Records
---
Amino acid sequence: MTALCVSVREVVKHYCLGKVIIPALQGISLDVAEGECVALCGTSGSGKTTLLNIIGCIDQPTSGTVTVVGKPVLTFTDSQLAELRNRAIGFIFQTFNLIPVLTVYENVEYPLVILRLPKSERKARVDAMLAAVGLLAHQRHRPGELSGGQMQRVAIARALVTAPRLVLADEPTANLDSRTGLTILDLLKTMNRQHGTTCIFSTHDHQVLRYADTVYTYQRRVPGGGWRTTMMVQLAWRNVLRNRRRTGMTLLAIVSGMTGIIVFGGFIEFAFVGLRENRSFARSWGIFSSINRGIPSMVWLRHIPI
Ligand SMILES: Nc1ncnc2c1ncn2[C@@H]1O[C@H](COP(=O)(O)OP(=O)(O)OP(=O)(O)O)[C@@H](O)[C@H]1O
Ligand SMILES: [Mg+2]
């Protein structure tokens, strides 16, 4: 049996925006074997980027377990995660995340500098990768001087230059024309075949799907039923904990209001009894008996003949 490169179990991810909880992933499970090429499909907002960020150790789930290249990454420290990301994972971001002050060459070289490779080896690898994505002529340009598609190709070169075990690509062809897109996909597929690189990519593009061994399709779950009730209870409880002072004042106001109603009921009853019987004993005793009996005394008032 082939070893697993990625295992995701019952992963839930909620983002908190102020008092609003946004459920991005709700119990996702996924197994990706070493050397497998997997596509994540789904409507916008279904959580593809969120899932890739969690697998790429950039973000943590709210609950669930995640194993990446055989490591239980949720137990790792920040420095262990950084080491794993540098050595084993190449990430192609949907928004490129290039460093604006560095040239194309320096952006691609950067992960190799972190790995402390000698300069000559860095140059050989960067040149080969820039040639593969067709950007040798642009190596002195800065990201701000490139088109969206060119920036995408720099991001792809930077992700692949370390020859990682796992490549995560968030919509890798979204900004490319179809011919360049196919060249990039061929490059990914070649790495996948020749080096056994595991690839997970998200896409809306049907020609990308042909490159995948397995396709997972996700739907954004529409809030409703039990999920909605659970979320409402969670939201209410969070609000109670967050605004303790306000909650205390509200409780005090409710208790004061109830007490006021009971006392008022007592006075009304006292007035009626006093009017009817005109006895000082009833006048004074009526208040206390009404307070003791509380709200039911108000109900009873309705039966007093005026
Ligand atoms: N940092 C964040 N803070 C708050 N909510 C977020 C954050 N990132 C994502 N979300 C929300 O999580 C949900 C899933 O977002 P995600 O970006 O993972 O979707 P996606 O499938 O990648 O969408 P697309 O196809 O448009 O890229 C969305 O409702 C989004 O608004
Ligand atoms: Mg996305």
Note: Confidence is low (pLDDT under 50) at residues 222-229, 294-306.
---
Amino acid sequence: MEDQVPAPNAGDYPNLNPSLATFNGLFFSPNSEKSNDIASGKFFFAANAMSAFQNSLVPPANRTPENKQALKSGSVERGAKVFETANCATCHIPPFFTDNKTHPINEIGTNSARAQSRLGLNKLLVEPKLYSFDTTIPVSANAEVLDLPTKGISENSTTLPSGILPNGGYKTTTLRGLYFSAPYLHDGGAAVREGSLKVFRDGRFQVVDLSGLGLTGTLSQALPADPASSLRALLDRSLREKVVGANKLNPALSPEHSNLDGTGHEFYVDSQAGFNPQQQTDLINFLLALDDDPANF
Ligand code: HEC
């Protein structure tokens, strides 16, 4: 902690004022006075290096025979069209499949508990300021301080981003690497165990094992959630209802305990939304193929 530098205008540790630029009042920066500090450098060096590293991370390709077959048969390509027709791309914008925006909870409708976590900050925010990028460490008394523009982010410079107010919200998740990140939604509630569904050739499906539905049938028993079946639970409202039902029957998942249910994100691709079972399956295959360079591995 002693290596961190308080943002200008944000007080001194531990009495820090959060701002839109820094929720906890701190900018991370190494103390470049230490000759053996491998992260030693100019102000923001460590934050920039960490961002560059994170930008370089790519999800591994989905090398399963199912994905190879779905690519070969044209199902993935057809699924891309369904993705477009179903308006998924309005929020999950390619190539990163996110709009990098926080959407209000009223719009997304998923379990609201965690969406509200930052609302208390709204009363505490101060004007966001930044040292100029050529500032060196230790910061001198006459270092240049810049005002951080917040137009388009929030109503004014000391209110939380508009997607968060007034009731909280969730950021659009990237869809890259979905094959590796089941179960789905921030609470992991869209979860189905492998073998719980029987999928027919024409894309229709049937639940054959009710005990595999929800977190109750998966992570609660330390069993993995199956990516394809869990995505089907996200996209098909009749299956989702059963999955949410299974979650709600589990006292450990109740609002008094962990508050995980898999509700919301009601952007369905099912018969009621005008899609046939084959289109639903094609969309799932498309979603499972998304990585840094789909179809190339
Ligand atoms: C209005 C914006 C919006 C639209 C339209 C939308 N999504 Fe989302 N999506 C989100 C947000 C926000 C989340 C995160 C919600 C959460 O975790 O509570 C999300 C989460 C997801 C997830 C879970 C990702 C994970 O890792 O847990 C998947 C999969 C997904 N969306 C697919 C789709 C598909 C397919 C469509 C179209 C049928 C679609 N979305 C339409 C905003 C949107």
Note: The chain has seven helices and ten strands.
